[in-house]
Structures are given as structure tokens and as C-alpha cells.
Amino acid sequence: MADSGDKRVRLDIEGHLATIRIDRPEKLNALDFDMVLALERAAGLVDNENNLRAVIITGTGHRAFCAGGDVDAWSNWSPEEFSMKWVRQGHRAFDALARIRHPLIAAINGLCLGGGLELAATADIRIAEDHIKVGQPESGIGIIAGWSGTQRAVRRFGAQLVRRMALVGEVFDAKSAFDLGLVDKVVAKGESYDSAVAMAEQIANRSPAATRLTKLLVNIAEGEERDSSVEALGGYIAASGAELQQGLEAFRNKRKPSF
Predict the structure, then answer these.
(1) Which end of the chain, N or C, is surrounded by fewer C-beta atoms within 10 Å?
(2) Of residues 118, 222, 224, 225, which has the active-site annotation?
(3) CATH of domain 9-204
(4) 149-202 pLDDT per residue, tens
(5) Catalytic residue at 224?
(6) Is position 40 annotated as part of the catalytic site?
């Protein structure tokens, strides 16, 4: 097990597969500040693992994937602390997850509300169990979805669907979530993780370089960190050419390169 910095965010790497598991079932896997920090660290660790082919994110138990941010973790903070610390750190963590170069699969094993839906939105593929509930209830307590629930969620799911959840307060069951495109597959209760593993194995049988490049290109098309993604793609192309080796050899030998 790799160290995410918080035992409630477990990171396991086995062969070509990494699993990030939110392990706080007594609080419906709700996130406090230290757990958000741990998610960012876990994302960085798996992003730097060259041998990985896929990553799964899930929660412990069958009641909740993630019930969002723990209200007790931020409700006593000042508006400045809330906006500049809680919201900004959540963005850093969730952006890091969305930009992991390996395909990310969310195994949604229960309630997926508020920050939990924002967390699921960072994944490339979402597999849901048939008893889940999905929604954005934040406005019901006088706050907004602050971890890209009005930004990445709109890019992934569409503005009108986000309006229905965030403005009206609609909560969707698994069938509706599938029909509306919030999730990509529905399985029986208790089967989301195994189904995610099977999908990860399918991904592992494909070209890892082509898979990572495809994810990068889709991220560019979707507007997910366009600037760094474009430069990452350009860097990959440049680093794959013979001219770089010529330039490096000339640099090491203190001579002018011959391109």
C-alpha cells in the first residue's frame, strides 16, 4: 500500500492497476480537508507510476461512494478560509485526479452526492451499482457546488442536467443516471469494483502509449487543462524524434548539433 498521507484515503498498487479507496464508511465516505489533501497526493503518486494501465477510485462499503464534503469540516470556517482553502484545495485535488495520464474508472458503490458527484466526474468511465443515488444538493443548504460541479460537471454531463440537479435539486437513481449519461454502466449491488477491474483488464490489453495519448487528446477536446495538455502532446512528439537525441549528444559533448 502506498502512503497517501491519510489512512482514510487508501492507495493500493498491484501490477498494472492502482486503486484509490475512500475509507470512511461511518461518515458515508464524506471528505474532510486532510482527505482532500490525500486525494491530491494519491493522484500524483499514480500519475508518476509508469507501469500502470488503469486506476480505479471507489468507496468502502455499500452505502456511499462519497457523500461529498463533510459539512463539519468547513462550516465554522470564515468565508475567506472556505473560498481560498477549502474550495481551492478541492479544485487542486480533483484537477489532479482528472488529469492522471492513465484511464481513471469510478466504481460508484452507493450515494454519490455533491462533492461525491464532482469526484466521480473526474473519472473517464463511471460504473454504478443499481442502488445508487446521484445529485447536487448543495443549494439546499445555501452553498454552491465548489469543486467544479458547475464547470467540469457541465463539460462532462451537459449544462441542462447540471441545472436540474443544482437548481431544482433532482436526485437520480441508477437507471435514470445511465439514461441521462451520468454513468456509463449499471451493475448489481456489490459488483461495481469487480466490473471496474474487468474494464481495467480490457484497457491493459490495449497499447498503453496509444491509450494515454487518446486520453490526452480527449482532455484537450473537452477543455480539461488545454494549455498543459497541448504542450504535453507537443513534448511527446518532440521527445520521440531523432533530433532530440542529436541535440542531447551535442550538449553532452560540448559541440554544435547537426540537425
Answers:
(1) C
(2) 118
(3) 3.90.226.10
(4) 999 999 999 999 999 999 999 999 999 999 999 999 999 999 999 999 999 999
(5) no
(6) no
